Amino acid sequence: MDSQANPSDLLPESRIDLLLQWKGKHMAGNFSPVAKWLNGKVIDASEGALEIEYEVREDMCNPMRTLHGGIASTILDDIVGTMVYALGGEFAFTSVNLNCDFLNPAFPGDVLTAKSTVVRKGKNIIHVEGKIFKEDGRIVAKCTSNMIQTGFKIPSPSAG
Question: What does the pLDDT read at residue 60?
């Protein structure tokens, strides 16, 4: 890919290819406003798995100056949702639930890696897991979620 090209200007063959066009780059393009604000950097994407890196900023923290649980939940919800989107289904999925556990603090300047995986994919429900890791491997937070298919049709990545 030309280093001057904007990933959203290229026509990907699949949604995974669309994400892989952002590999090593921050998600400042045609993603959701939340993803833009989180400013994650795509590390890898494959069928049923996604990995994104985030840097903890002051505006992501609670009064104790640690990563706010709501922001950790937002990262987890965004990464599992983006991963399910990348599966390429005709219809969008939405979260039925999001169960989060907060295990270790993260501080401004910490670089975190969030990973998501599909546990089980059914016709209408997809069970997913997400985890946020610190650089030393400690888990900051983890989640499980069930996502249900909606009636909203998703346009193809090449539709514009």
Answer: 98
Neighbouring residues of 158: CB distance < 8 A, sequence distance ≥ 6:
11, 12
> What is the C-alpha separation between 74 and 21, in angstroms, rounded?
23
Structure confidence at residue 2 (pLDDT)? 43
Distance CA 73, CA 98 (A): 8
Cβ atoms of residues 92 and 154 within 8 Å: yes
**What burial class does residue 8 get, using C-beta atoms within 10 Å of its C-beta: 0-12 exposed, 13-18 middle, 19+ buried?**
middle
Q: Are 131 and 141 in contact (CB under 8 A)?
A: yes
Cα–Cα distance measured from residue 32 to residue 157, given in angstroms and rounded to the nearest whole number: 14
How far is the CA of 117 from the CAs of 70, 84, 111, 131, 142, in angstroms?
21, 9, 20, 9, 12
Q: Are 60 and 40 in contact (CB under 8 A)?
A: no
The pLDDT tens digits for 42-58 are 999 999 999 999 999 99
Q: Which residues of the chain have pLDDT under 70?
A: 1-12, 29-31, 156-160
